[in-house]
Amino acid sequence: MIHLRGVIALLGRFPALAGVDLDVGPGEIVLLQGPNGAGKTTLLRLCGGLLAPSGGTASVLGVDLTGKRRQVRSRVGMVGHASGLYGDLTVAENVRFWARACGAGAQDVPAALDRMGVAHRLHDVPVARLSAGQRRRTSLAAVVVRRPELWLLDEPHAGLDQVGRDLVDTLITDAAGAGATVLVASHELDRIRPLNPRVVTLAGGVVHDDVAKRDPEVRGVQGSRAEDPAQAESAHGVRDPGVTGGMGAEDPTQAESAPGVRDPEAPKGKRDA
Amino acid sequence: MLRDAWLIAAKDLRIEWRSRVATNQVAPFAFLILVLFAFALDANSAALREFTPGLFWVAVLFSGMLAIQRSFSIESSDGVGDALLLSGIEPASMFLGKALAIFLQLLALEVILAVAVLVLYDAGIEDGVLFATTSLVAAAGVAAAGTLYGVLSVNLRVKETILPLLLLPVLAPVLIGATRAFNDALGTAAVDGWAWLGVLGLFAVIYIVFGSFAYGVLLEDS
C-alpha cells in the first residue's frame, strides 16, 4: 500500500525528508512520532500526493508518486492542522460539498455528521462560528464520507474533548478493521498506544526507528487487525462481521459493504477512473 | 467535468451570498469609482458622456480585481486549497467553476454600473444588443484571465499587490476592445463596435482555452 525507498522531499531547499524507507500494508495503523521538524507532516503530505518526491522511489496505493501523484489524492482522506473547511458554509454544506467533490454520494452525509456528533444542533451553523473541536469533528466527517483507502491524520486528537477523542480512536480502528491503512502523526503517545499501532520514529527527515523492523511479529498483529470481528465495524458504526478487509480480505464483495473504506476491487467512482 | 465546474461555481456563489462581500464592498467600491471620475472631470456632462465607455470599463476592471482576489482568498484559508487538491477534481473543472462564479459576479456588477452611468453620466444606449453582448464577452474574458492569474498569486505573500500588477496588463486588450465596442453601442464615437467585439471575443476564447490547460500546472506550482 505504501512503499517508500530513499525518499527525499524538499521544502524549498530544505530536505524535510532526507531518505525515508517505509513499507506499510493494508489494515495497518502506523503511529509516526518524533520531535518537531522530524518530517511527520511532510511524510503525510507526500503520501497524500500533495508533495512530489525529489528523490528516491515512492508508491502509494499502487500509484507511482513521482509521476502520477494526482491519481492517489481522491483515494486518500487527510486531516491536518488546518480544518480544510469553508468558514462561510455551514457544517452540512461543507461535508456535502466535499462528498460531492470527491465523487462520493451525498446520501452518506447525514450518517457521517451524526457519527461525528455534528448532525443536529450544529447542522446549519457556519463553520466560522464553531469551536476548534467542533471544526475538527466536521473535518473528520468530511473524511469519513469519502471512504478513503488511506487515512492520513496529523494530530487528530488536537482540540477534541474526551468524547471526540474516543470517536477518533473508534474511527481509526474501524478504518483499519475495514482494510484501510491509517498513518497517524501524534505527540500524544499514551493516547494512541491502546490502538496497538506500529510505531515509526522519525528524526531529521529519516526513519530513526521502526518497531516492525525490530520485531516482525508486530506487523503480523497489525495485519490481522481486520480479522478481529470486534473491530470489523463499519465506519458508520454498523457492525459487519463479514468484513475481513486488509491483506487478509477473503471476500471482496463483503469488504465492499464496509462504509469505512472503498473496496479496491469494487466499481470505482469517477475520481478513480 | 461540467458537473464539477458547477459544483465549484455554486460553492463560490453561495459563499459570496453568505459573506455579502460582493454586495457590501465590491459594488459600493465600483459605484464610488464612477462618482470620483465625475468629480475629477468636474461634473462636465459632455465630457462624462464622451468618456463613459472607458470610465465604465476601468471601473469594472478595478472593482473586478476585488472580486477575483476575494474568490481566491477563500481558497487559501484554513487548508481548503489542499482539501481541494485531494478531492481529485480536474483542474480544468476548477478553472471553469471559479471563472463562472467570477463571471456571474462581474455581470451583476456591470448591471449596477450600467444603471449608474446611465443616471450619473447621462449616457444613452443606441445599440442595446451590442451593449449586452460586449458586457457578456468582456466579463468572460476578465473572469478567465482573472482566474488564471488568481491561482498564480494565491499562495504568494504579496498576493494582494502582485495580482493587479500581473493581471491589468493582460487585460489591456479587453479594456481596449470593450471600450471601442461601447463607443459604438453608446454612440460616443464612430467606430465599428461589432469588429471590436470580435477582437474581444478572440481574447476571451484564448484566455478560456489557455486557462483550462494551464490552471492545473499553476495550481500545482503555487
Structural features, described:
The complex is a heterodimer of chains A (273) and B (222). Chain A is of the alpha/beta class and 273 residues long. Chain A has two domains: 1-75 and 174-261, P-loop containing nucleotide triphosphate hydrolases (Rossmann fold), CATH 3.40.50.300; 79-147. Chain A is 29% helix and 22% strand. In chain A, helix 3 packs parallel to helix 5 and helix 4 (109-115) packs across helix 5. Chain A starts with a strand and ends in an 18-residue tail after the last helix. With 222 residues, chain B is mainly α. Chain B has one domain. In chain B, helix 6 packs antiparallel against helix 8 and helix 6 packs parallel to helix 9 (193-221). The two termini of chain B are 22 Å apart. Chains A and B meet through strand 6 and helix 3 of A and helix 1 and helix 4 of B.
Q: What is the averaged pLDDT score of chain B?
A: 90
Number of discrete helical segments of chain A? 10
Integer count of domains of chain B: 1
> Largest beta sheet of chain A, briefly?
6 strands, mixed
Largest interface: A-B, 31 and 20 residues
Look up the CATH topology of the largest domain in chain A.
Answer: Rossmann fold
Task: Give me a quick take on this structure.
Chain A is an alpha/beta fold. Chain A has helices at 40-47, 70-73, 91-101, 109-115, 132-144, 162-177, 189-192, 211-214, 217-223, 252-255; strands spanning 2-11, 14-24, 29-33, 55-60, 63-64, 76-79, 150-154, 181-185, 198-203, 206-210. Mean pLDDT of chain A is 78; it is low at 219-270.
